[in-house]
Specification:
It is a single chain. The chain has an 8-stranded parallel barrel, surrounded by 7 helices. Helix content is about 40%, strand content about 15%. The chain is built from 9 helices and 9 strands. The longest helix is centred in the middle third of the chain and has 21 residues, at about 115-135. About 45% of the residues are buried. The chain is an alpha/beta fold. It has one domain: Alpha-Beta Barrel (TIM Barrel). It is globular, with a radius of gyration of 17 Å.
Length: about 260
């Protein structure tokens, strides 16, 4: 398989950047998706809003120290907020400075026609800006809107920009969308440019994302559907969302790596 596979640093959201890089590297991975989610995890230092060329060089050097290449910025919690366009342009600029070709993000919540008009107006601007910077914005299945592949595919089709795509999350579609990924992913497949690989205990709004193979996601079916997909993927391991010893996180990350090797990754 030619897919680049790394780890989304939400996996280590209770731990420092260097602890995270060390654990991912020792787990066998070569790629890293660094998250900057205000109020949740800040593994991009300085933040995207403050990133400059000097900061980018230093951050990339730190990743390189651990043998990791940064391929994606996790830039959630900025769309559909005050000054969404200005704030998200900073995330795009940050990704471009870091040489990351992808940004994963939630689409924000659209609750009425006014929100919908704002969303599509913002995305017309941001899609063009991302294309100019050669960065692809990937909507993660998340929240009360855009929480299934089928629904998000329709949103992406309407935006109609090759640099606005889907980040398909195999666990979130169950948690947020009450939908099984094995069937739903087929609707999203033509529009997927990034993947979050995540297992699930199988319950709607049940915060249970175990080591691969210990949950209900049928990865045999998922990877059969993805056999012609060559885009990047991030492992995301969150257990029950509570703090656990870093040794447990590291062991789980490594177990997921060994699990994926069975499929040729």
């Amino acid at each position: 398989m030619q897919n680049k596979i790394g780890v989304a640093t939400s996996t280590y959201h209770f731990f420092s950047l260097e602890q995270t890089l060390d654990g991912v590297s020792k787990g066998g991975y070569k790629y890293i998706e660094l998250l900057s989610v205000p109020g949740f995890v800040e593994h991009i230092v300085p933040s995207p809003e403050e990133m400059d060329e000097k900061g980018a060089v230093q951050l990339l050097a730190l990743c390189k120290k651990y043998g990791l290449e940064m391929y994606c910025v996790g830039g959630h919690m900025r769309l559909m907020k005050g000054d969404s366009v200005g704030r998200f342009k900073k995330v795009i600029d940050c990704a471009a400075l870091l040489g990351a070709k992808y940004i994963t993000t939630d689409a924000g919540e659209v609750r009425n026609k006014k929100d919908e008009i704002k969303f599509y107006s913002d995305m017309e601007i941001l899609g063009d800006y991302a294309q100019e910077k050669d960065v692809t914005i990937c909507f993660e299945l998340h929240g009360d809107w855009c929480n299934t592949g089928k629904e998000t595919a329709e949103v992406v089709k309407k935006i109609d920009n090759s640099h606005v795509r889907i980040n398909y999350d195999t666990g979130n579609v169950i948690f947020y969308g009450d939908t099984r990924p094995e069937e739903d992913i087929k609707y999203a497949l033509p529009y997927i440019s990034f993947m979050h690989l995540k297992d699930s205990g199988g319950k709607y709004q049940g915060y249970d994302f175990p080591v691969f193979g210990e949950g209900t996601v049928d990865f045999d079916s998922i990877f059969k559907t993805l056999e012609d997909y060559s885009g990047p993927m991030s492992v995301e391991l969150e257990f029950d969302g509570k703090e656990h010893p870093i040794e447990k996180i590291n062991d789980g990350v490594k177990e997921c790596y060994e699990f994926l090797k069975r499929y040729g990754y």
